[in-house]
Amino acid sequence: MSTEIRTARAEMKYARMSAFKIRDIARCLRGLRAPEADARLRFAPQKSARLLVQTLRSAVANAENKHSIPAENLVVHEIMVGEGPTFHRFQPKARGSAGPIRKRTSHIRMTLQEAPPEAAKAEKKEKKVARVKAPAKE
């Protein structure tokens, strides 16, 4: 049995929303299992949640088709939201002047990782408990 960790990626480029708005929702997803992240995004009212759920489903499909990893075994490892190009427009203002309008875009990159087996998680919990129960020095 190989110990390499398999990952799957998906990118959405030129999403028509500011990266600042997408990052707020993306922060909540790191470390969640893919089905749970999908469920949270489906019920979020923000437009950025719709963009993230598209990217998440694409990454899950990539994992299933390229690496044969079932969706239940995937964990959101990394979400990076970077700024894309900004479209510059102008709004007419009073007395013949113009005010700038910046229509921002963003690039979303999501990486899913195969979750470690449950036995490894149990070992980590036991080690953590053992460290906590060690007697304190007075």
Q: Sheet with the most strands? A: 3 strands, antiparallel
Task: Kindly report the oligomeric state of this protein.
Answer: single chain
Strand content: 25-35%
Structural class, judged by helices and strands?
alpha+beta
Q: Give the helix level as a range of percent.
A: 25-40%
By CATH's scheme, which homologous superfamily applies?
Answer: Ribosomal protein L22/L17
Q: Rg from C-alpha positions?
A: 21 Å
User: How many structural domains are formed by the residues?
Assistant: 1
* Uncertain runs: none
The pLDDT mean sits at: 88
- The CATH architecture is Alpha-Beta Complex
Instruction: Output the number of helix runs.
Output: 4
What's the total number of strands?
5
Shape: elongated
- CATH domain fold name: Ribosomal Protein L22, Chain A
CATH class, anyone? Alpha Beta
Strand order of the largest sheet: 1-5-2
Order of helices and strands: EHHHEEEEH
**C-alpha end-to-end distance:** 47 Å
Notes on the protein architecture:
The strands form 2 sheets. This protein has a 3-stranded antiparallel β-sheet with strand order 1-5-2. Helix content is 38%, strand content 29%. It starts with 6 loop residues before the first strand and ends in a 6-residue tail after the last helix. α1 crosses α3 and α2 packs antiparallel against α3. It has one domain: Alpha-Beta Complex (Ribosomal Protein L22, Chain A), CATH 3.90.470. A hairpin with a 5-residue loop joins β3 and β4. The chain is α+β, with helices and mostly antiparallel strands and 138 residues long. The chain contains 4 helices and 5 strands; from the N terminus they run βαααββββα.
